[in-house]
Hints:
The structure is a homodimer.
Chain A lengths: L4 E5 L7 H11 L3 E7 L18 E4 L6 E5 L3 H12 L6 E8 L11 H11 L4 E6 L12 H13 L6 E7 L9 E4 L5 E5 L2 E4 L5 E4 L2 E5 L7 H6 L2 E8 L8 H8 L1
Parallel strand pairs in A: 1-2, 1-5, 2-4, 5-6, 6-7, 8-13
Antiparallel strand pairs in A: 3-4, 7-13, 9-12, 10-11
EC number (chains A, B): 3.1.3.5
Family (chains A, B): Belongs to the SurE nucleotidase family.
Main location (chains A, B): cytoplasm
Amino acid sequence: xxxxxxxxxxxxxxxxxxxxxxxxxxxxxxxxxxxxxxxxxxxxxxxxxxxxxxxxxxxxxxxxxxxxxxxxxxxxxxxxxxxxxxxxxxxxxxxxxxxxxxxxxxxxxxxxxxxxxxxxxxxxxxxxxxxxxxxxxxxxxxxxxxxxxxxxxxxxxxxxxxxxxxxxxxxxxxxxxxxxxxxxxxxxxxxxxxxxxxxxxxxxxxxxxxxxxxxxxxxxxxxxxxxxxxxxxxxxxxxxxxxxxxxxxxxxxx
Amino acid sequence: xxxxxxxxxxxxxxxxxxxxxxxxxxxxxxxxxxxxxxxxxxxxxxxxxxxxxxxxxxxxxxxxxxxxxxxxxxxxxxxxxxxxxxxxxxxxxxxxxxxxxxxxxxxxxxxxxxxxxxxxxxxxxxxxxxxxxxxxxxxxxxxxxxxxxxxxxxxxxxxxxxxxxxxxxxxxxxxxxxxxxxxxxxxxxxxxxxxxxxxxxxxxxxxxxxxxxxxxxxxxxxxxxxxxxxxxxxxxxxxxxxxxxxxxxxxxxx
Lengths: 254, 254
């Protein structure tokens, strides 16, 4: 039997420790092809490259997988891999492991999750992984067995069309992780406060800054599960229609 | 009574005819402040600027509104406007009018809609408008009365928290537009085919290309409404949780 073909991508760039760890974990499960950005793409959301060109190159990194670096966004990587690099349809697309959380509302800003969503749009099984640790030398190995378990279970139990997974891993030692909890996206947001500075030429400029505000205390919210030591898994869909409001809206607009 | 405060943004840049038309339409309804990108930002999705700085300037354009141009993405514009420019909470945020469709799956790639969604995350009433005409000199006036009608009705009938509107307008003359239809996001996707070329130095490069494939023929799909001559209005939410799959997923993963 053919080993499953697993496409790996991320948004921190092809050399980021997070994706190299994910590649190592996936090499034990299937045949791995990596197509990832040649530079960090955090916060790129579902951006695509339409007004400039793309280049790619095969690079040699440790391990049995093939590695291709692309001059584009995470979503570009998925599109390009499917059209130009892979010779058969992948059984699974995994994105990450992101250096930093993509829980709750962060799903909509995340390049990691946008790559996973793009794979879902293409009709593929797809999972995004993120660790709640922004550090470049974060420890990604503590969740290895859980990540491999989730991947194997998804390969065995394919998700319905239109659903991908958003997996977030708490920053805890291996034996402190309490397990896996299926969650909903917590109701949370960033409270912005732009940091204002003046450059040496007297011109004012700003850095996006702020703090994260979780407003959701329900037991099945991903932020709550993470704070209690669980790996959160949110099934994410990309049909954004608010069906429950359609009838009221018809009454107002039609 | 105070006139409603309307924040206007877009993704084609502050001087694009689409946003200038929308500003003119909104000036007849409320007090208008424009905070829009200083350069085209199409396809930027929900990108935010986190690894570089932002600058803005007030510019003088025709009309009673105030115009601010920002060196960021559409989502940056909404965040920046709320934190640094507006002195009171806007009654409505409108984004667009985009030069080109943001119907069906295009909602997830669209800077126009990401700005609208960001406003929704901030707890504001919000609408994105797009015209099915990529041309820079497209006629935006044919839908003026419909756009103003939608805005007035939303101001009068606030939407529930977590819902924003995605409005697409067919490329038709005023008397050919059949009316407004509340729709769901059609099941559709882009079939990619990257266009491969060689530069003068012998290096291969690619342009993202492809064609749009609508797979949804249901009468309430936005693509169908548009093809039948209606303005499509999809209520869009940003809680991406696939609630209907949570129970099954618990059985698989927990």
